[in-house]
Amino acid sequence: MNMKVLIIPSWYPTEENKILGIFFKEQAIALKKHGCQVMVLYPEIRTLRSYSSSWKQGVQIAEEDGLKVYRYKTYNPLPARVPFSNAFVYYSRLKKLFKEMVRKDGKPDIIHAHSVLWGGWAAAKIAEEENIPLVVTEHSSKLVRDLLKPYEKKEVAKTLNKADGIISVGPSLKKEMQKYTDKHVLEIPNIVDYKAFQNNRRKDSQKDRFRFLSLAFLTSNKGMDILIKSFAKGFKGDDVELVIGGDGQQMDELVELAKELGIEAQVQFLGRLDRQQVVAQMQNCDAFVLASKFETFGVVLIEALASGKPVVSTSSGGPESIVNDKNGFLVPVDDIEELSKAMQQLYHQYHEYNLAAIRKDCENRFSEEVIVGKIVEVYHSLL
């Protein structure tokens, strides 16, 4: 194949936050594994409020997990509230990185940007200047949640109309993106490290409680309060537990809510988890629950299914393309009664689920080979 692919992410893992943009990184690694030459350009921009004399600014080139990554570490001197403040800093630094990359590694055959604001926006300018085909994959739930400012909406439309290939990671996001462009939007989900998730959970004894797991940032969008209330309604006093992984601003009030509902002995809060801990928790549960208000995709659902676990999820935008009657239940957003019923039904019918079939169906739809194949097909169609 030997196609030279340049990845331009709007956000990307840093030393301080190793899971920021992890799906962009994993997709880049998978593309390289399947025969593409892959490079990443990332202007890593901080606000002046986070200034540190020990943080070395400037261009840095390094091999990161087998990928050649060009970073430009810099501060944005303007407040975030100033329109385009981050965008212009990103673009000016990206141009310098691009020039350096071409000098050292030559021109890419294709540019693949992740999210319009502001990686895709800046990539579109370079792609136009250099006459290189551009693919943009959108991930941001801001489009679905109508959180874009008027000037951002204009730039999203301009960027998508400049792109040669447009990808959405989920169905509701695709529908929203079509409002900004007449071009066809393909739906290709994120890559999940399918092989890392293996089903090895067993019910070893009568004392081993049935375990529901949920993983998310503890913010209001993730509906953890709804989940805890639904769990209390269906399982208070039963030999069933709810394990919640993740950290965030709602942690204290969620712990308090579990106490108020009298289920604190059945609800366990794990705090922030790294990737290995996520794998371990997926392996160690019986079923997975996601109560989000909005999801552009729902990677945690794929990780659960790859582990052979049945799932319960809200119809929050992305899960509709993942959950089916063979692997779990979809329920309306913010509906305590329906979520509780679905969790009870899954618990009582658990023996009817074919865990190997859940895993196989997930592999057929979402494995690395399948997703990379679809992305490379897009590249070939543009070259």
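The record above closes out task 2.4. Task 2.5 opens with a second protein, given below.
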Amino acid sequence: MKTLLNLCASGLALGAALALPAQAEMLKELGTPEGALSIVAWPGYIERGETDPAYDWVTKFEEKTGCKVEVKTAGTSDEMVSLMNQGGFDLVTASGDASLRLIAGGKVQPINTALVPGWARVDDRLKEAPWHTVEGVHYGTPFMWGPNVLMYDTTVFQTPPDSWDIVFREQTLPDGKSNTGRVQAYDGPIYIADAALYLKTHRPELGITNPYELNEDQYAAALDLLKGQRKLVSRYWHDAMVQIDDFKNEGVVASSTWPFMVNLMQADKAPVASVFPKEGVTGWADTLMLHTDSKHPTCAYLWMEHSLTSNLQSDLSVWFGAVPSVPEACTDGSGQQTAEGCAANGLKDFDKIWFWRTPTSKCEAGGCVPYHRWVSDYIAVMGG
């Protein structure tokens, strides 16, 4: 598995391959808070106690700053990019398969880290991460990171499954029934990387070294696997709550998912658990990025600082099943998270996770299939 150094090198190479627009003017100092803030976010990321009163990191921010927070949730990175392209938002919690596209498209502006005191507390593994740093310029502040795990029904799997095989290959499950119609796959082109990661182990002759850098033969093999998976899949998921309902009421027994859904279901006493399969996992390292045309930049910077406080990082880490970008949030007692909880969420597994990033033709391997092909071909796969 790649080390962070190699990931940074490949990310910088990717950044160099992008045709970067002229940089927007970096904010030099904070002004008077504008009274409002609009954020595009993953479900569960911006909580004000409405889902669970124990999780609220919006109310006190609004009271302290006067910045009224509005949230638009998005279930996929492509949806986030589309919303940011439309405009009217200040911040986005972008994953690596969206962040570089937003940078290349001129939709986000460089961040003046001197205006974010919490930057000093950020995990050193994230400060220069290639999904928000291009040519030495930071385009966001790290927010949360974590794995895409395999969630399974414990009444079906008495012994935890150890492979993604149960969602990719037709088979009889331990309860004596087929997996056809009982599994799910992610509703996003980046899921092609999950198929490539599976093939990296099971078809070594393909020579896959990076699931985001696929030549034509490797890419074709991943598509073939996904086409075969199509007849097994009951739903391509992107809505966290819909997936939870499918596990509870629609007979779904296995799927890729975020720890967020695992945590919610286990809190509701649902019979589910999750594992890191032997083939490895993809994952996400999300970054708060500021729209080039933000109407509320001071409120946005105040939120970026707020997002790096130990209390928010600690509670969000517990709520979402993620790892804080501020390591001290695991142990300083500021919130609900503990060292054991961070370890369970993957704190020590950073180098085992293939973090989402936008595929490009100008990759390390040379001649790789670019993302626009992933988009069109995955739509065709889902359509059958």
